Structures are given as structure tokens and as C-alpha cells.
Amino acid sequence: MQRRKNVTRRQFIKGAIGTTAAFTIVPRHVLGGPGQTPPSETFGGALIGCGGRGNGTFNAMGLEAEKLAICDVKFVGRTDNKMVYSDFRKVLERKDIDVVAIATPPHWHALISIAAMEAGKDVLCEKPMTRFIAEGRAVADAEKRYNRIFQVGTFGRFGASGNEGNVQTHKIIKSGLLKECKVVYIKRGGFKVKEWSGMVNATPQPVPKSLDWDMYVGPSPMKPYHRHRTGGTHRGYWDYEGGGLADMGQHYFDPFQWIYAKDDASPVEIEAYAPPAHPEACGMWGWVEMTYADGLTLVFDSGEWGKPYDRKEPRGVSMSDLDEESRKKVEAMPDPEPLVNFAEAVKTRKRAGGNADAAHRCATLMHLANVAIRTGRKLQYDPVKEEVVGDEEANRLVNQPMRAPWHL
Amino acid sequence: MAKRSSSIATLVDRLPDPDENGMLTNIDKEVVDSVISEIHKGGRNSIRRLIDMLVEPGSGDDVKPRYALHCLAVYVCKLDDNGQQRRFAKALASQLGGDRPKAVQGYLVRQLQVAGGQEVAGTLGELLHDEALCEYAAQALVAIGDGAAEQLRKALPQARGKCRLAIVQNLGVVRDRESVDALKRAVLGDDREVRLAAAWSLANIGDIGSVDILLKAADAQDSYERIKATKACLLLAEKLLAAGSKAEAVKIYTHLRDTRTDPDQQYIRDAAKNGLAGARVK
Asked: How far is the first Cα of chain A from the last one, in angstroms, to the nearest whole number?
């Protein structure tokens, strides 16, 4: 099949269907069904959220995608609804757009990802995937319901899964043959806690004429405008993200999740050492200790507040932790399938390595940590029901109400 | 009273000051915990005094009392004492609906979202017609859960504008079956946002009698509304299937499979086919 450039996949499809000769040689697989490769590798793309991460996220798709639309709530007064938009809903109505890169603040990630998949688009979404836990499950449900490609915008697992030692660790844990998992994984520093804290004394400012503030706030509680709530420093507010912890965590723990075979699991116990949190501004915390059902301990140690974590020492896992029979079984296990990147996933319809389920379980780590910080309580978590056990108020942060008309 | 007021002010003043960037980076956990514990001992009067210190954003410095009130909300949740928590929530609720600035009342509602329970549902329900507070009130009600449906249902007939939208949507969140008829009327209304919210609500409720009305909505227009109404149909089908109403679910899937013939709608056909496969229908 000859490769066509400068024609979007959907334009090509329309052309093919309108041409009998072409139609005879371009059957159903032009639609890129499961296991099929579309004849054109040029895709119609849209970028939603055009701040600092916008172009980087769009380019991270790794596709020959023609940027047909850009959209941002700060484009008020300069939209033409052909190339430049301020309302993502109008972008998603376009049939010539196949793939959408989302680089808005995180409180919009889940809703736009879901809406894009409902409109038949594939999605690459900037990290962190979500603002709270229930959003992640809703994205994963949409990914399955519409059989679309979703990839979160962090790629650490792709490198990690190519490392021989990591593969062995993955297989040991995945095998379930460890009688007791004594792994203690401690991530010290790098959480940008102070850098991405919020202001507690911000006084309202006039909304810039170029900004649709109501649309910016979207599903989050309406608050008066202050520039610190936008433009990157939005990270410091619970309404839009979850501080440096949420912002950096998905980078750090995306490879962890793969290496330690935790893509379908979450911790069962979470304890935080932190001062009482502010209701709106993300702030200081010392450390968070999480324990999985198999015994693995995961620790975030900020190094920016209070005493450092000193309960346990880091510990890995090796074949020597297994008995002879178990070692043989692990050695006989096949290596895991190579992870599929976004571009390959879009073309082949195979599931992406950083798919919605995996990304959601990773984002859940940071959300659970923040729930423990915000409630000041030790939490028991049910990874199947995805709710905190016996703590109604903590669950109000697991599944947060949204401002209408936005809902999961 | 004057002595107690000044004592609260002294306590609150011990809370940390923002740093030069407006952030609470210099925070001492022991000091904050001790201050909040002391304020709590003062009971309802202390809470009232704290609320008196809140001002409209931009009209004064209330950083410390705001922080204190939220810490108190979290603190009473930690006590594992429903009585204490209820008393705190009632003290906050007693300050709603009066002539305090709306922004201050909004802040109190958000603290009820943290620590309130059924005991404040009625007070929150009374705010559902207040343009400035209805969104916060609706969010607090659904977070609380108990008593929310009754309040939302009661407020719907007189609600207008964004309050009506918030109520229609949240009736779906709490899955209030008693509101099905009202929601069906809303699906046929003039306001697009309300139509979409009502369609989703009926789907999330899993109302078996809404199949035809949702399918009609999904066929209506080739636009974002069509996309969202189609989602409502698929959601309803999943709910119905899970509830054992297979025939109605199959009706939805079959309709979508047979009517979405445009190549761009292949993914909807596929979703419908998957649904039918799940229902084991060829």
C-alpha cells in the first residue's frame, strides 16, 4: 500500500469510500481495526491545552500527525473555530481529527480524555493522568468501552522494561512465588514540594480578557481568579492538581509500577507524616509510607519538611529470595511482551504500554498519598473496590463532586 | 465573651504566617495540632468566633482563621466521635443563609463537604436556589450522600439557571429513581446543558423506561450532543445489563449497531457489537 502524505487518515478514508476502485482495495482495515494497519500514516491531530507542555506533549505522540486544531481557554478573542479554539468540545466534533494530545492542567485530563474517546479519538494525555482516583477508573472504562488508544505522557516504563535486571524483578514479583515480599522502595527527594505549593493569601484579581475563567475552572469548585492558579503554578492547588507530589510522582513511579508488577494493584495501607493541610493550597509534607498486600513497602520521602523517613531501609528482591523450585519456575517464565508505544498502538490497535489502567494505578499512588496528607489519618484501601475502607470522609476525596455540567 | 474572643484570636495568631511567596512552608505540626485542639475545646462559641473572623476575599486578612476552621473540620473527623462531628457541622450550618458575605458562606459549605453529615442536609438544601451558593451546596450534598437525594428532588421544581443544571446532574450522581419523570421532561427541554445532564442522569440511574427517549436524543444531531447522548445510551445499556434487563440493553446496542453506518462511527458500532456479545446475542 502506497503511503500517502499530507492527507489525514480520515480524509483518505472518505476519499477511498467515494472511489469505487480505491474502495475495492481499501477494505474495512482503513479504519484501523484490531490488528490492522491503516494505509496512511498521516493522522489528523489536535492539541488541547497550549501552555508550556503543549507542543512537547503533541510531539511525544511520535506520529506523523498534522496539527489541525489548537485549543486553549486563554484563546478568547482569537478563535476562528477552524484552527484555533477555546472550547475543546468543538474540536472533538471534527471528524478529520484522529488523535488528541491533552496538555491542560490535570483537573481537565480525565474529562477531556473521556470525551475524546467518546468522539472516537485516540489520546495522549500529559501526566499526572488525573486529579483524583475515581477519574482514573472512568478513563479506563472509556478506553475499554470505545476501544480507543490511551497513553499517559510519561514514558519511564518503556526504558525500565528493557533492562535485564528489571525484567527479572518483574518476573519474580509477577510469579507470586515470593513467600514474603520484603521489598522496600524509597524515593527520596525530587518532589518539588515547596516549588509547587500554593499561595494561602492570594487576593482576587481581575480575570484577563483573553481567558475564559469559567471554562478554566471547569469541574473544580469555582474560586476567584488569581494568576497563581494558572500558568504552571496551578500545580499548587488541590482544585487543579496535587502539588509537586502529584506532578512529579507519575514520572517516578511509572517505571516502579512496571518493574514491581503493580499495574493491577494498589497499596492497602497508607500513612503520611505531614502537618495539617491547607484546604486549597498544596503544602508541606515529610513522608508517606504505603504497603501493598504482598508486603512490598513504597515510601515517598520529600526531604523538604520534618524528619527524614527512618522506619525501614531500602531493600530489593533477587532470585535468592526464592526457594530452589520457585527459582526454576521463574527462570522458565517467558519475558514479558515488549511495551507498545503510542504511535505503534494507534497504527496497530494494540494497547499502549502506558494505557489507562496502568496509568490510573500509578496516579492512584499519588492520590492516596495526598488523601492521607489531607485527612491526617492512616488509611486502609481496598484496591478492588477502589475506596478507603471505613472512612467516609476520606472517600469524599477519592471521588470528588464536580461542578455541573461536568461529570465523569 | 470578650475574654474568650481575645483568647481565640491569640490562639489563631500562633498559626504559621505565610512566607514571602504566600506559602505555608514554615509550618510546625505540633503547634498547629495544639492550637486546633485548644480551639476545639472552646466548643460552639469558639467556632462562631472563628467564623466571625472570616471575610470576603480581598477585603482583609483571614488566612489564619480560614486555615484554623479547615483544620478543625479535619480534626473532628479524626476524633471518631459522631457527636462531636455533628456538633461541629451544626455550628457551621447555623451560620448559613443569613447576611454573612456569600463568599464566607461558600467557605463554610466547603467545610461541611469535609466534615458534614445528614444533620446538615436540610440547611444545604435551602441553598440550592441561591445562585451564589447552589453549586457548592450541591457538591457538599452529594459528597455527604445521606439525605442528598431528597433535598435535590425537593429543590428541582423551583430551580433555574445554573442551580437547575447542578440539581439535574446531581440527581443522577445520587441515582434518585424518584426523579425519573422530572429528568425525562428535562431531556426534552430547551437548554442543551440541562438536556445532556438529564440524559446522563437517567442513564446513571439505570432507568429501564428511558431507553427510547435516550435513543432519540442520541439520534438527534451530529454534534457534541450526539456524542454525549450516545455515551448515555451505552452507559444505560451497561446498567441495564448488570441489572438483568437484557432485552432493553440489547435494544440499545442493536439500535446503535444498525444506525451508526458512517465510517467515522465504526467505533460506536464496535462498542455496540461488544455489548451484544456481552449479552450473548448474535
From this structure: 41
B20-60 confidence digits (pLDDT tens): 999 999 999 999 999 999 999 999 999 999 999 999 998 98
Rg of chain B over Cα atoms, rounded to whole angstroms, equals: 24
Cβ-proximal residues to B153 (8 Å cutoff; 6+ apart), any chain = B171, B176, B178, B179, B182
Distance CA B235, CA B229 (A): 10
Strand, helix or coil for residue B145:
coil
Angle, helices B148-155/B161-173, rounded to nearest 10 degrees: 140
Q: How far apart are CA A357 and CA A92, in angstroms?
A: 23
- By the 8 A CB rule, do B117 and B146 touch? yes
**For A165-207, where are the E strands, in sequence order?**
184-188
- DSSP letters spanning A355-382: -HHHHHHHHHHHHHHHHHHHHTS-EEEE
Q: What is the ipTM of this complex?
A: 0.96
Q: Show the DSSP H helices in chain B as ranges.
A: 2-13, 29-41, 43-52, 63-78, 82-93, 102-115, 121-125, 134-144, 148-155, 161-173, 180-187, 192-205, 211-220, 224-242, 246-259, 266-278
- The three-class DSSP label of residue A37 is coil
Q: Which of A178, A217, A208, A218 is nearest to A78 (CA)?
A: A208
CA atoms within 13 A on the CB side of B141: 31
Q: Rounded to whole angstroms, how far apart are CA atoms A270 and A152?
A: 24
Contact A275, B34 (CB under 8 A): no
**What is the rounded distance in angstroms from the CA atom of residue A321 to the CA atom of residue A324?**
10
Cell numbers representing residue A265 in the block: 494493584
Hey, of B72, B171, B224, which one would you mutate to test binding to chain A, going by the most A CBs within 10 A of its CB?
Answer: B224
Q: pLDDT per residue over A210-253, tens digit each? A: 999 999 999 999 999 999 999 999 999 999 999 999 999 999 99
Q: Which three cell numbers stand for residue A125?
A: 494525555
Tell me the chain B residues in contact with residue A372 when contact means C-beta distances shorter than 8 Å.
none
* Residue A264 burial class via C-beta count within 10 angstroms: exposed 0-12, middle 13-18, buried 19 and up: exposed
Q: Nearest CA of chain A to the CA of B58: how many Å?
A: 5
Instruction: Mark which residues 261-280 of B lie under 8 Å from A by CB.
Output: 263-268, 270-271, 274
Contact between B37 and B78 under an 8 Å Cβ cutoff? The reply is no
